[in-house]
Amino acid sequence: MSYRRLSWLSRGALLVLLLLVSSLTTLPASAQEPGRIEGRLVDSEGHGLGGVTVTLNEVSQAEVTAGNGSFVFRNVPPGTYSLTFTLEENADTLTDVVVGAGATEKILHEVAWDISFADTMTVFSASRRRERIVEAPAAVTHLTEVEVERQASHGQVPKLLEFTPGAQVTQSGLYDFNFNTRGFNSSLNRRIVTLIDGRDPSVPFLGSQEWAAVSFPLDDLASVELVRGPSSALYGANAFNGVLNLVTKQPRYSEGGFFRLTGGELSTGNADLRHAGELGRGWFYKLVGGYRSSDDFSRSRVTSAEYGDATVGTLPRERIPLVLDEDEIFFGGLRLEKYLDNGHVATIEGGYAQIEGPVFQTGIGRVQLTDVERPWARLNYSAPHWNVLGYWNGRDGEQRSLLSGAPLLLDSSNFQLELQGNVGFAGERGRLIGGVSYGEEEIETSGTLTFSDISEDFQAVFGQFEYDVSDRVRLVLAGRYDDSSLHDSQFSPKGSIVFGLTPNQSLRFTYNEAFQVANYSEFFLQAQTAVQTPGGPISSISLAPVEQAFGLDLGFSNIPILALGNANLDVEEIKTWEVGYTGVLGGEVLLTAEYYKSNADNFISDLLPNLGPAGRLNSDFQFYTPPAGLPAPVEAALLQTLQGLAGGNPLLGFLSNNFDGSPILALATYTNFGEVDTQGVDLGMTWHISRPWTAQASYSWFDFDIVDTGGLGEDQLQPNAPENSASFGLTYAVDDWDAGLNVRWVDEFAWVVGVFNGRVESYEVVDLTANYRVNDTIKLGVNVSNLLDDEHWEAFGGDLLARRALASIEFDW
Question: How many beta carbons lie within 10 A of that of residue 337, not counting itself?
Fold first, then answer.
């Protein structure tokens, strides 16, 4: 594959687009400088109320409060105003709000309404703007700050969504999770783009998340949103099945701190720290840190495996035992924010994580992280009609393949810049959102994972048009153009119509296209999967007698056995039609339901044997060719010897040439499949039965049909996901304590990922959480995963999972 740097013409076009978006979102100054109203709506206990309509009566402008209750009116002419707050039948009015020229009037307004959680639920990720969940043009799961805090002590982000509609949470080790939705999961899953405050923390080489490197306590999350379904129109490459958007707390709205100690099974000892406060002159800070120490579920497989037989499949034996016997993780971060009088906010933030010990399932076998450092930095400047984001991620990592014993070095660095703007029109009935982004990535493996170092640059332009056709009909159109030195240019369109059946119920019809790019491993992998040993299965390939007879050294004495990337892979594409319903019934029940039907082309396989019905899967590594210039008798003798050996050793069929001509066994590679149709249903319910009781339930059905195998066997393409799954949960919460019990059931399914080929048997998981606040300073907690200690595996080749019971004590100030 050839590389091309960003041309001066492309750079110029990018600059023009930046200036265009900036000019569209800049408002002209008036003769008398306008002011602004900045407020927050809270209940009688001081909790923010989201989803409330705030009307500035004198000018007939309206805003919807964010999840923390905040709202802003900008460009308000100087004068005296009144505000009306409405939510269904609840209403309240605040008068005598005085706005001075160029000044900001700050308001904290309290209401004593009897409302439920569902009434105030707002989301951001579906449209890149704040809206009520019943108005969102996509299927969205939303977790509130309180829901996250109740289970934060386990410190594992994917488990927050384990019991939510459509989520496929597959755990392979204590910190090894593959998070997905709508099928075709895999180890190192990357079909869900994960963002933390707009920053993508994934490992560039793999495109997947390194969940152990999350550098903040989970209590620092202000909201968790999962957009289910293709989302490349706004989020670009690899938003194939959705987007997980994590937003941490702003220090201005979360002053104070806590320190928590957690301990329990697997010799767990954790510590978490968070503190936020004001520095003065509009500056605020937030400091976070943590330490994790524990054993793991991982066991050595040198002589035997924890499970596996002729019925479910056989696990490969590994060459070396675990390098480290425990997991140790350290993380920290600092955030500074400057709040300006004109409503602009500047953010400077950075963090660091160090990881030792966790084991991860990959296509080339299990890999243990022995020493990984993950520094990062983020800059953000937000204004009423535009936002500029820039971030950098680094990785300096050493890991070890347990299957081959080979050391794997993986260092990377990437940065991205994004400018986004928005503007309203037609009396705020319409909205335009647009933006541009540019980024670069660099990969270094010292020859242990790739033949050479890799670099890439990429850029994108995106936009979304929204228009309220009537009070009950909303039209949304979006599109994004992505260009990269790694893949062909892609355009991803989106269209949605949202019908408001009632103020609290909606029906939506959507069409989305998305794409997934092969990661660097799939393009350029060069990883040793086994070693040749005397008397081993490939020792007969040694051609030492031939080499000695002719006085040559052709490299046959020690042939590397490799898994190889395929630089000829095409971009994976998906097209999805969807109909969905979201409704809040009686202010107490949130119901969601959607049916989707998708068509995917050019599926990128997991590692497969480099032989297919029509020949090699990877055209760059054909059958071995003798070096040019050999005398004809030598070449004939060499080929004759190879043909004679082939009958007794099938592995000889994988013999090929490295790029320098030396012999290798090109054992496995990636390829594109043909075409697959999928369909499914996701159902969800959250019922606020009474003030202390809340019930949750979900069900998902998934089906697939292989339309075109691309010349491969159907058994080689598996969705690695169950046909049926369901969950149920019950929570009891009063002022001083809460308790919750959740149950998840998963149907059996096949798992085919690289060297791991077997079945995942049906399993059930029961989790328990409980918290008791002793006083304003001390809180006690219990968190038990797999309460019934039902030993099971969730991915074939993953660890045998058991119970993990934790207890915590937290000190707040």
Answer: 21
CA 761 – CA 763 distance, rounded (Å) = 6
Three-state SS sequence of 510-556: EEEEEEECCCHHHHHEEEEEECCCCCCCCHHHCCHHHHHHHCCCCCC
How far out from the chain centre does Cα 247 lie? 13
Tokens of 752: 């085919």
pLDDT-wise least confident of 336-345, 573-582, 764-773 = 336-345
- pLDDT above 80 (res 537): no
d(CA 589, CA 687) in angstroms, rounded, equals: 4
pTM, two decimal places? 0.88
Q: CA geometry: angle at 69 spanning 66 and 75, to 5°?
A: 70
* pLDDT, position 587: 75
Tally DSSP H helices, then E strands, for the chain. 6, 45
Dihedral sign from CA coordinates of 525, 531, 537, 543: positive
The Cα–Cα gap between 84 and 57 comes to 7
Q: Find residue 749's DSSP bridge partners.
A: 760
Distance, CA of 431 to CA of 229 (rounded, Å): 23
The answer to whether the beta carbons of residues 607 and 563 sit under 8 Å apart is: yes
Residue of 668, 662, 446 whose CA lies nearest to 565: 668
Among candidate residues 756, 764, 757, 762, the one with its CA nearest the CA of residue 785: 764
What CA–CA distance (Å, rounded) separates 526 from 669?
10
CA distance 60 to 38: 17
What domains appear along the chain, each with residue ranges and CATH number?
Answer: 35-115 (2.60.40.1120), 122-524+570-606+671-812 (2.40.170.20), 526-564+608-669 (no CATH)
**Nearest Cα to Cα of residue 105 among 84, 82, 131:** 82
Residue 545 has φ and ψ, to the nearest 5°, of -60, -40
Residue type (1 letter), 436: V
Q: Side chain identity at 787, as an amino acid letter?
A: L
Q: What is the DSSP string of 486-510?
A: SS--EEEEEEEEEEEEETTEEEEEE
DSSP state of 59: G
- Tokens at 810, concatenated: 């937290």
Calpha distance 363→203 (Å, rounded): 16
Q: How far is it, in rounded angstroms, from Cα 6 to Cα 187?
A: 32
Q: Residue 570's closest CA among 521, 531, 620, 517?
A: 517
The string of pLDDT tens digits covering residues 605-660 is 888 888 765 568 898 998 888 888 888 888 887 778 777 766 667 777 788 888 88
